[in-house]
Structure formats: structure tokens, C-alpha cells
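Quick start: what a row looks like.
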Amino acid sequence: MSNYKTESVLGGWVTADKTTGEHIGPVFNSAADCWAWQAENLIRVRILVGASAAYACIESGTRSLDVRLAPGKSAAAAMLEAAAEMTEKAERMLKRARLIESASNLV
């Protein structure tokens, strides 16, 4: 379920947060252009629960990512834990890349 809606405003169409009513993004002349912008720029999350595991399916524009959720935790807590693990791994990879780059100057 989306937390956003398309609203008609003076001058066109805009994306609005369903909870706060806050307008997000530019005003478009057509609803179709607004929907295209939403598809490219807004994040959509679905939680799928299977017999052996649960997953968060994240979509934004042309990108998609499935994250296996740790059992016994809320979806948000499990996603934050997965993000922290990915960040740590990325930092290790960056350190290795910098070492390789520095070593390339020595050969």
C-alpha cells in the first residue's frame, strides 16, 4: 500500500503524503506525468511472508531489492540491521580498493 496520493492543484497535479498532506516533488501538467515521476522517484516496500522466511521487497524506479528479514524482529529493525551489515561490508571493500589503488602507484 502506498503512503502517497496524486492531488489536483492549481496548475496541475502533485504527489502528496497521505498522512500529512505535504506536497512532494514538482507540479505536473498531466496526471500521467505525475504518475511517471512517482514510479521513478518514490520507494515502495512490500513485506512477503513465506513458510520458511520473510522478505522486504523494495522498489524505486527501475531498481529493486529483496532483503531477507531476520526472524524474531520487526521488519523495520531487520531492514536496519541488514543496511548496517551492507554498510560495514562496503566500508571494508572501499578500504581494500584504496589499498589496491595505492599499490598500483608502486608498480
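That is the whole record. The chain has a mean pLDDT of 92. The longest helix spans residues 75-104.
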